[in-house]
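Observation: inputs received (chain + zinc ion).
Thought: call the complex predictor directly.
Action: predict_structure
Action Input:
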Amino acid sequence: MATASLLPATIGSAIAMTAIVGVRYLATSGLFAWITGRVRPGHHAGLQPQIRREIGWSLLSCAIYGIPAGIVAWGWQARGWTRIYRDPAAYPWWWLPLSLLVYLFLHDTWFYWTHRWMHRPALFRIAHAVHHDSRPPTAWAAMSFHPIEALTGAIVVPALVFAIPIHIGVLGLVLLVMTIMGVTNHMGWEIFPRALVHSRVGGWIITASHHQRHHESYRCNYGLYFRFWDRVCGTDRGIAEFISAA
Ligand SMILES: [Zn+2]
Ligand SMILES: [Zn+2]
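Observation:
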């Protein structure tokens, strides 16, 4: 392909991916905001100005997530970049579930350490105060990030697909978990069953009860999917009270 047609192709893919991420955000956050209104009427009453800010920052983040993802998706299709594969038998069957865990764990590790770093006072004011402006957060805050914070999150999966083989279906699952947990963790109430949240497994995974405490207390519960790093580093302060009141 000539250089002249390369640029429009990558730009077109970046715009298409931005639109996909944007529609995904509006549909998922919209759905869970609607569910919140049904199961907790009035829970977010009076928060309309905050919700408008959350949507504005989130839509900007959609472009920051969509551009690198769109360029990598184009490179995968047109140039054979990345280690994304289509044939499930290309690697041993156990790599399918293991690759899901590896991707989530590496994303979680990156998130934990960059998130802790962004809680240093000088950087917090610049890059992370936007996310904590949601008091309390709502389902619309799922992608409410300052562009610097959005950039740190946007590069993770596009970088990993160059290094670690992943089936296209498993990659879809990674993105699904990322989307659902990003929204439900900010809803201000627990959607997962009490039996799971308070179970042995629940002690290692992050749901709204855990992330809500981060938004209340700031300097604890930094993780994204797993409580592993919070536990190892002594920053886990347990789960928020609203779970027991629910
Ligand atoms: Zn948050
Ligand atoms: Zn934070």
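Thought: report the result.
Final Answer: The radius of gyration is 19 Å. Residues 131, 137, 186, 211, 215 surround zinc ion (ligand 1) (CB under 6 Å).
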